[in-house]
Design a protein that fits this description.
Length: about 260
């Protein structure tokens, strides 16, 4: 069996991914705030360090794959901390154990929302590793009201997708033979979207932002199966891709613009 680290394992896409892996006989070490093998808060630097140390110890020093699903969508500074720094700092902290695998792999969950209007300043601050500034920008946007506050989530995911593009070809990842990729879902039926989709107005907002001509809203399984393949031994050359697994939302919105 391969040893997988899955963040956000207590709910939604992470929980479904962990369950499918266990069904296949793989070993899963889940990380989440509560209800996981490793309970840690990925919104803080200390939480990330503690999570990486505990997961590495539970794994016995070698990790075969990391699947980072933990994320939040609220218009608050914690969103850039969890969605960007909680992924990249954790991946970097787990890299020594991942390098020991015969077939190391990593995949993260970005979002279709990464293509939406965002704050370039926040994206740049995140990519520069400046969490304090990124959080200050998020707070300023939130203070300006819901419209500006909404930019926080797409900014966190744009930064994450761009980090994956850059790092995937670096000495750390490609240089160590580790495929690193992102999946960008459309609207997935999980606790994250349940409130929004519970009213006709909310559903219309979601569908205007993320039109899904192929099969409409998607199950967490639709994302989990792709994450499983990206982190399997079968994936030897797919690297640095942001795969829009989104019912055709990207093709609808961007069309020829690629
Ligand atoms: P969810 O809310 O069902 O699960 C997210 C999990 O992350 C929860 O178990 C939560 O406790 C954990 N988490 C949140 N903050 C954390 C922290 N500080 N430390 C540790 N764990 C923390 O959400 P869902 O839908 O499964 O989302 C998974 C990923 O997919 C997220 O990154 C989300 O942004 C992304 N996504 C979701 C979409 C959707 O429509 N549901 C669409 C596109 C992307």
């Amino acid at each position: 069996a391969r040893t997988y680290i899955v963040t956000g394992s207590a709910s939604g896409i992470g929980a479904t991914t962990a369950a499918l892996l266990r069904d296949r006989g793989e070993r899963v070490i889940g990380i989440d705030l509560h209800g996981a093998d490793v309970e840690a808060d990925l919104s803080t630097p200390e939480g990330r360090v503690d999570a990486a140390a505990a997961a590495t110890e539970l794994a016995g020093g070698t990790i075969d794959a990391i699947i980072a699903c933990a994320g939040i969508s609220a218009p608050i500074p914690a969103t850039i901390s969890v969605n960007y720094f909680g992924v990249v700092e954790l991946l970097q902290a787990l890299l020594p154990a991942l390098k020991k695998s015969d077939a190391p792999r990593a995949a993260v969950v970005s979002s279709m929302a990464s293509l939406q209007t965002n704050s370039p300043e926040m994206v740049e601050a995140a990519l520069a590793g400046d969490e304090t500034t990124a959080r200050e920008i998020a707070q300023k946007l939130a203070d300006q009201g819901p419209r500006a506050g909404y930019l926080v989530y797409p900014s966190s995911k744009r930064a994450l997708s761009r980090w994956v593009r850059r790092q995937s070809i670096s000495a750390d990842w490609a240089g160590n033979g580790i495929p690193l990729n992102a999946v960008a879902p459309g609207t997935v039926l999980t606790p994250m979207t349940a409130d929004l989709l519970s009213t006709p107005e909310g559903a219309k907002m979601a569908d205007d932002a993320v039109p899904m001509p192929l099969n409409y809203h998607q199950s967490p399984e639709s994302i989990a199966y792709l994450l499983l393949w990206l982190t399997s031994v079968e994936n030897t050359h797919l690297a640095g891709q942001v795969i829009y697994d989104d019912g055709g939302a990207d093709a609808t919105l961007r069309g020829d613009d690629i």
